[in-house]
């Protein structure tokens, strides 16, 4: 996606991070790319300004960059994982934030990534923050992440299907997920027949 000229250098930094991540993990960067595509479609439907679309796109492209610190055998483990393993998986959000926060972005990219598993009702992680403390871009990213994750094949399971993914965000609409964002996601998925591309 073309970015505005002032953000070009930051997009190049993001591209370099993604290229490094692809050396060890073939799945996660593809998931991030597809999540970014859906997030941008939602953001445009909601008429976010172009500069905020740039930031949303970049944040979505690296929202799971912290998984570079997680053992690949855990990321691709088939079947159920233990509570301890889930605890390790959850650390990817903090790792991602710490990595991105070292870069002097002139916008809240690291914060958006830090919040992509947080929920409106405070039941998310890693900080359990809620409501107005969540950047609007992170609310978009959270919804796009859920839909892409559930509707795409994962290394450890087959796709659950788009219908199941959309039912899930509707179930969480207004409690965990921003209702405005959920409605926009439903619209763009149905209007554009958006589907994740098989890896």
Automatic annotation (TrEMBL):
PANTHER family assigned: CYCLIC DI-GMP PHOSPHODIESTERASE PA4108, CYCLIC DI-GMP PHOSPHODIESTERASE PA4108-RELATED
Domain of life, source organism: Bacteria
InterPro entries, per the entry: HD/PDEase_dom, HD_GYP_dom
Annotated TM spans: none
Name the UniProt record assigns to this protein: Two component response regulator protein
Pfam families for the chain: HD_5 (PF13487)
Species this protein is from: Herbaspirillum frisingense GSF30
GO molecular function: phosphoric diester hydrolase activity
HD-GYP domain mapped to chain residues: 6-199
SMART domains on file: HDc (SM00471)
Record's signal peptide: none
């Amino acid at each position: 996606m073309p970015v505005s000229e002032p953000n070009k250098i930051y997009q190049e930094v993001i591209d370099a991070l993604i290229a490094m991540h692809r050396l060890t993990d073939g799945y996660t960067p593809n998931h991030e790319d597809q999540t970014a595509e859906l997030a941008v479609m939602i953001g445009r439907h909601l008429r976010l300004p172009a500069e905020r679309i740039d930031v949303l796109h970049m944040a979505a492209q690296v929202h799971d960059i912290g998984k570079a610190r997680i053992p690949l055998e855990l990321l691709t483990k088939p079947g159920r994982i233990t509570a301890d393993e889930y605890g390790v998986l959850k650390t990817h959000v903090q790792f991602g934030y710490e990595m991105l926060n070292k870069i002097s972005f002139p916008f809240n990219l690291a914060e958006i990534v830090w919040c992509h598993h947080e929920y409106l009702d405070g039941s998310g992680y890693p900080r359990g923050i809620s409501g107005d403390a969540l950047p609007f871009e992170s609310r978009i990213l959270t919804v796009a992440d859920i839909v892409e994750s559930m509707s795409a094949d994962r290394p450890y399971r087959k796709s659950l299907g788009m219908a199941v993914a959309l039912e899930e965000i509707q179930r969480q609409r207004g409690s965990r997920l921003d209702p405005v964002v959920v409605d926009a996601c439903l619209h763009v998925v149905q209007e554009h027949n958006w589907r994740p591309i098989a890896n």
